[in-house]
Amino acid sequence: MKYSVVYSSNTGNTEMLAKRIKEIIPANDLTYFGKADKAAEEADIIFVGSWTDKGNCSEDIIEFLNNLSGKKVFIFATAGFGASQSYFEQLESRMASNLPDDNQVIGSFLCQGKMPMSVRTRYESLAKSKPDMANQMLENFDKALSHPDENDLLNLESEVKKVL
Questions:
Q1: Burial (Cβ within 10 Å: 0-12, 13-18, ≥19) of residue 33
Q2: In the chain, which residue ranges form alpha helices assigned H by DSSP?
Q3: What is the CA radius of gyration of the chain?
Q4: pLDDT at position 54
Q5: Mean pLDDT by 10 residues, the chain (164 residues)
């Protein structure tokens, strides 16, 4: 079995997950590791990861997924908002919806990821007009600072091993 790992990472969170997947896959079986590229399509199973951009995966990953045909795909992603498993399920569904019907999602892993400090500054500005909303967003931001953490990486490893 041959594997590819394709990812887009805006802040390093998704790259951290991609690197952990790379460590798990036997080196001789890994045919591609990196940004979205046609060369990745040669694998039997493709691990595809993205940061979350307005509730979906990044544009380059959308384009990559749209062009896959007849592949087994494992989806992974990070998102700043991580308080809700249902939110992760929505993100996974949105990512998977970019795949043509002849592909098969064989697994997934999504976790919270830290956000840039500029996001915290924006939330702090919101506190003047919407203090309740801002406080929830700031609390989530602070919680996200430690993610992905070692527990996230262990959970990812468990999900990846299920498909190897």
A1: middle
A2: 13-24, 59-66, 85-96, 117-126, 131-144, 150-163
A3: 16
A4: 84
A5: 97 97 97 97 97 92 98 97 85 96 98 95 93 93 96 98 96
pLDDT of residue 83: 66
Query: In DSSP terms, which residues pair with 107 in a beta bridge?
Result: 74
Please write down the long-range contacts of 115-124, taking CB distance under 8 Å and 24 or more positions apart: 115/11, 115/80, 115/141, 115/144, 116/11, 119/80
User: For residue 68, what are the contacts with CB-CB under 8 A and spacing of at least 6?
Assistant: 41, 46, 99, 100, 103
Q: For residues 14 and 58, what is the distance between their CA atoms, to the nearest angstrom? A: 11
Bridge partners, residue 48, by sequence: 6, 75
pLDDT in the model for residue 82 = 75
- Rounded Cα distance between 12 and 51, Å, is 9
Residue length of the chain? 164
How far apart, in whole angstroms, are the C-alpha atoms of residue 132 and residue 41?
46
22: Cβ contacts below 8 Å, ≥ 6 apart: 5, 30, 33
- pLDDT at residue 81 in the model: 84
- How far apart are alpha carbons 156 and 143 in whole angstroms? 19
